[in-house]
Design a protein that fits this description.
By secondary structure, the protein is mainly β. It has 3 helices and 33 strands. The longest helix has 6 residues. The relative contact order is 0.14.
């Protein structure tokens, strides 16, 4: 496929009509973000939430590739907090994982995050404080970070969607019990109130017939693994977990989106006035919920040609030499009744306080085997690195990079990556209740 830099970028990309809080005007010094109380309209009544700058999701942070992120977190909560830049590679000191890479920011405190944005993509930002993360995120502390490539793919609309769910009581208040041991050993905390960009689902939009939409979506729920299906349009995936891939149409026009996962897709709106493009959440017993309903409106735009791929990331290797890899299995199972929520390789972990699972020299290929001996799926995530999902039956790998992988109940999945950044790196389940209950460890690159 032709590379992007051989084509002129279509000017006038339209902003999403499904509004997210926008980045403020350029300013001298760090961009200050406050973690503080706020309110959201998720139903009939207002809900008290915690949010970055008091909103959930927080303000969209948007930069160009090559710029520097300079953010000061000011903690106005009664809980400790950090900002973890979910999906970004390298920069261990800025990874925002307490107590692994920094001390948690105490109430009333502040912390400065500075890092070079050398790779474009869709990222998210959220706290990572061991044992406290489910409540911090479950009450609303989450947001999107977009790093635009120098020459974006031609599109008429750039649509950002933060997908979430909430557990509210009859008065619209967030239900507590974030440390429920039974949920931590099962599927995690799943709320029945679906939200898109901080409002009750579905989101709605109107786009010109035939116009091209670049959809960037992120699942920022605590635990819900979302199976999303596209209806009325033909979508093509162009990036997964911040890394570009060769454009492809997903099987059955469906994508599995684990907590923390991000997908970027391109599709053309229907040509017929009033026709709808829908994104549906598939549930049990073939149920479905509308996440996005976009209606074709007005005169037809000129039909576009092929959908092209983003340029590949030159910092990632074309292949990983698996024969030379450090091979580690993580046998994961629920702990004994009354004991630890989860154990890894037969032992309860101390989360990020304990010793590393392994240490390797910088540049070493690593293969991890996730052996899931539980009856619930896991969403295993490695910080600071991009991974290849290996094939179950041969020595190949999937043709895209991931930050995390879904491991079905009673199944095993293998991933491989190059440990190319020094520091202490977290490995955990992105189902946050699992992580807080012990499904967390780390490795060192020296």
């Amino acid at each position: 496929m032709p590379s992007l830099n051989r084509r002129a970028f279509l000017t006038g990309v339209a902003a999403s009509v499904v509004a997210l809080p926008a980045r403020g005007a350029p300013q001298m010094g760090p961009r200050v973000i406050e973690a503080r109380a706020g309110k959201a309209k998720l139903g009939q009544a207002e809900t008290d939430i915690l949010g970055f700058d008091g909103v959930a999701p927080g303000p969209v942070l948007r930069y160009k590739q090559g710029q520097e992120l300079d953010v000061r977190l000011v903690n106005k909560l009664d809980l400790p907090a950090t900002i973890h830049w979910h999906g970004m590679r390298g920069e261990n000191a800025m990874d925002g994982v307490a107590p692994l890479t920094q001390a948690a920011v105490a109430p009333g405190g502040a912390f400065d995050y500075r890092r070079k944005l050398s790779e474009p993509g869709l990222f998210c930002y959220r706290p990572s404080v061991y044992g406290k993360t489910p409540e911090l995120i479950g009450r609303g502390l989450k947001g999107l970070l977009v790093v635009d490539e120098p020459d974006p793919l031609p599109a008429d609309h750039d649509l950002l969607l933060v997908l979430d769910d909430w557990r509210l009581d009859a008065q619209g208040k967030i239900e507590g019990a974030f440390g429920d041991a039974s949920e931590a050993r099962a599927a995690g905390r799943i709320g029945p109130t679906l939200a898109v960009n901080g409002k009750a689902a579905p989101a709605t939009a109107e786009f010109q017939a035939n116009s091209r939409v670049r959809l960037r979506l992120a699942n920022l729920a605590n635990a819900r693994i979302m199976i999303l299906t596209f209806d009325g349009v033909q979508p093509f995936v162009v990036a997964i977990d911040s890394q570009p891939c060769e454009a492809f149409e997903p099987v059955r026009r469906s994508i599995p989106v684990a907590p923390g996962a991000r997908f970027e897709l391109i599709f053309d709106m229907p040509a017929t006035e009033g026709a709808k493009a829908r994104v549906l959440l598939r549930g049990p017993n073939n149920s479905e919920s509308e996440i996005l309903v976009a209606t074709a409106k007005g005169a037809r735009a000129e039909k576009r040609g092929l959908i092209y791929s983003l340029p590949s990331n030159p910092a990632l290797p074309a292949e990983i030499k698996l024969n030379n890899a450090k091979k580690i299995d993580l046998v994961i199972e629920p702990g004994p009744a009354g004991g630890a929520g989860w154990v890894i390789n037969g032992a309860a972990t101390n989360g990020y306080d304990g010793p590393p699972l392994f240490s390797v020299k910088r540049g070493t290929p690593v293969t991890l085997g996730y052996v899931n001996k539980s009856m619930v799926p896991l969403a295993m995530h490695v910080h600071g690195h991009a991974m290849r999902l290996l094939h179950d039956l041969d020595d190949g790998w999937e043709p895209y990079w991931r930050n995390g992988v879904i491991v079905p109940a009673a199944k095993t999945k293998h991933v491989s990556f190059i440990a190319d950044a020094p520091g202490k790196w977290a490995i955990h389940d992105d189902i946050l209740e699992h992580e807080a209950a012990g499904l967390a460890t780390w490795f060192a690159t020296v």
